[in-house]
Inverse folding.
């Protein structure tokens, strides 16, 4: 071996190539050398009663879904209610090919949504006249990476990829819990770069980018971006009623999920049930950032009805 440490391309570790057409055996061969500092050390897929971890590597082509009234799309379902009453949201990673999209993306009139673009360019229309069947005269927005849209229940919206490259976005959905005497919030469209992060008290190493006023009780969900500089931490096990979906946008860390410390990295998804203890430590070398869903500002329901 030369004096230069070799580096591993993690993708090259998957030696059973889909391009293999014969029945020749393939073998994993260690290559030696020092893996890059960004590589994790453990395999992390987990499903427990209090949390789940879906590592980026488990999102492969064979487990995709398609939706009615969409063209040129495929998606990975990262979260959905399981027990029928305890969980609050669903979350998808959606890929839209050039020319793909939908004029009827959401079929449930009670569903609110947050869209967050991680790659490519999408055209979103919001509003528009009744009965035109195509989103019509709605206001039009270009959503590139960091683009964020909140769409209240019953909103008319359309989404299309009119660019030459594939676009990828997160779609987080929740059954809006309307409250007598409280208006539903209005739609808005923004970009992460236009929203200043709020530092957590007493530290520059942990901040939260909030897209709605945290005191606005019209909203019953928040989707924020949480950022840690290398060395930043949640220094105690948070334990609260809010359920979480947590998608790692950048970097890596060790995350406490109930009683387990789990390594996570960009592309991984975590689902945390209500009251699941959680903390983290961002060891670097770069920033650690994630998209964080939580349900907020409603009575703890009494188990009489499913939601
Ligand atoms: N796991 C987390 O990032 N939790 C946040 N501090 C939160 O619940 O807002």
């Amino acid at each position: 071996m030369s004096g230069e440490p070799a580096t591993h391309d993690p993708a090259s570790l998957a030696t059973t190539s889909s391009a293999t057409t014969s029945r020749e055996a393939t073998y994993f061969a260690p290559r030696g050398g020092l893996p890059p500092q960004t590589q994790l050390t453990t395999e992390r897929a987990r499903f427990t009663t209090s949390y789940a971890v879906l590592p980026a590597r488990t999102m492969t082509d064979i487990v995709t879904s398609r939706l009615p009234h969409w063209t040129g799309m495929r998606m990975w379902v990262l979260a959905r209610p399981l027990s029928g009453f305890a969980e609050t949201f669903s979350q998808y990673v959606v890929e839209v090919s050039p020319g793909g999209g939908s004029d009827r993306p959401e079929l449930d009139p009670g569903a609110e949504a947050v869209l967050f673009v991680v790659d490519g360019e999408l055209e979103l229309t919001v509003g528009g006249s009744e009965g035109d069947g195509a989103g019509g005269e709605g206001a039009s927005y270009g959503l590139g990476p960091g683009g964020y849209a909140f769409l209240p229940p019953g909103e008319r919206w359309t989404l299309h990829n009119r660019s030459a490259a594939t676009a990828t976005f997160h779609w987080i959905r929740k059954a809006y819990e309307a409250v007598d005497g409280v208006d539903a919030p209005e739609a808005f469209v923004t970009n992460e770069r236009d929203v200043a992060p709020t530092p957590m008290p007493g530290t520059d190493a942990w901040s939260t980018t909030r897209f709605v006023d945290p005191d606005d009780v019209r909203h019953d969900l928040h989707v924020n971006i949480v950022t840690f500089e290398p060395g930043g931490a949640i220094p105690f096990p948070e334990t609260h009623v809010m359920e979480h979906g947590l998608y790692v946008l950048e970097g890596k860390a060790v995350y406490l999920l109930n009683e387990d410390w789990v390594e996570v990295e960009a592309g991984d998804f975590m689902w945390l049930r209500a009251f699941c203890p959680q903390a983290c430590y961002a060891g670097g070398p770069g920033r650690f950032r994630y998209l964080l869903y939580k349900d907020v500002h409603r009575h703890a329901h009494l188990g009489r009805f499913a939601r």
